[in-house]
Input
Amino acid sequence: MNILLVYAHPEPRSLNGSLKRFIVDRLEGQGHAVQVSDLYAMGWKAALDGADRLDRDPEARFAPDADSRHAFDHGTQSADIVREQDKLRWADALILQFPLWWFSMPAILKGWVERVYANGFGYGVGEHSDARWGDRYGEGSLAGKRAMLVVTAGGWESHYGPRGINGPIDDLLFPIQHGILYYPGFDVLPPHVVYRTGKMDAARFAATCDTLGRRLDKLFSTAPLPFRRQNGGDYAIPELGLRPDLAPGRTGFGIHLDDAQPASLLHVAQPGGEQGAEREQDRARRHEAQAAAHAEGLAQ
Amino acid sequence: MNILLVYAHPEPRSLNGSLKRFIVDRLEGQGHAVQVSDLYAMGWKAALDGADRLDRDPEARFAPDADSRHAFDHGTQSADIVREQDKLRWADALILQFPLWWFSMPAILKGWVERVYANGFGYGVGEHSDARWGDRYGEGSLAGKRAMLVVTAGGWESHYGPRGINGPIDDLLFPIQHGILYYPGFDVLPPHVVYRTGKMDAARFAATCDTLGRRLDKLFSTAPLPFRRQNGGDYAIPELGLRPDLAPGRTGFGIHLDDAQPASLLHVAQPGGEQGAEREQDRARRHEAQAAAHAEGLAQ
Output
């Protein structure tokens, strides 16, 4: 299969750099084709602006959505944007790998999303009617592809637990996993998060690679997060609130996951006996407070 | 008072450009001193990298946290970073104004945070002990100052409601309000969010300015969001989970707000009779589903 790794760290001789090389080797070892967008090495332009449309009248008012649409429809997008869109079309799976900086992705990667997700490609796809609100949240240009986050964090796992001070990691990643990946159609796999990066030694790095490697081996068989499809009947259109009888009385990000959804509906490419157990394990891991004591260490 | 407006939109002739001019005029009309960091106009460098430390050995391994610390401690930070830190020291209040792009701030503003929040300034402040985990979440270099978001969104308010498909706006903004503003010590005011920006006409713009203007007039008297202080006893140290007897049985971002906290503890500069009612109204508005029907319109 074809895999695009979009990677955002400024230093190759970093933990992230080592993990990037591990990921590429592991995936290629499994027979996959891998392309890497190493954003810092590419000198990726982070800021979306008028220069992203090549035929823009420089005196005209710049409208990010309208100018993006025009450029996408008329073949006048900046060449760096076109290259990344082509990589996404080529890919069967996308991996975004980054350090968690200020509880989100680095600016350079956010700018990749903003510029590559053109109007007509990443959003603005499909029709609006009484029954549909565009092709998004489970439908869209990137439907049928898989996506997964590989994230490092300086803080402890308990700081990102269900009652941890930073907020639960699943909630911190929701705007990315649901709002950026599921939005244009990706099936989103559970994230792989490495905590306490300041306390990484050779043994822990080996264990980290072992766990990550097993995740990568099942990239095309792991059950995706059961986000609810926008146009599948769960949401009122056009208000787009979740139907009152679903997750009744609850609010927050979690209600947009359908825990009752059978795995067979989740576009699982190669269902296997281990997956249900793995999904349960993942859920338990993610939803359980990290009560174990840790050695000393700085959070950031 | 002194107010820093950090503004991130590429086009002056946009809704955000108009709102920026309104904000500056209103605040100056109230006798405040205002500085604007217009990131696009400044050509702000979004990507954090080794060039941010002027005396770095270009052959050495770049460590974002260690190099930032060295540069901050030794006066070798890039000049653009120093200027923004000086503006923050000068300011009594910070306003971040931006369009919500992919459910977060634009890349150029994220890069302002990453670069200006140096190690020793935005994080890495204070000591770690059995009773403290650094000066953060309510303490830090920027304690005693106020901060507020002014955000525009293309989508409908109901899409960002408690059960809206995008996720509740308060949860989407939590990583910014709690993780970026409260973290180094700001008292964070409720955000001002303008929805459905594609449907803005003169009458609605006037109404928007009227509401926003009244918020700005109370910038130094509105009760901040009652985020819980990290080192105030609510969290176990070093695990940093919320004590089991607080918000018992609950999880998620919301538990880090202490709804029982009296306003008098919240560093309210000029308490007034209207505030309690306003806070209640704000809370009701934010936590109530937007059930009213809307006219047609595109979400993005």
About this structure: The two ends of chain A are 37 Å apart (CA to CA).
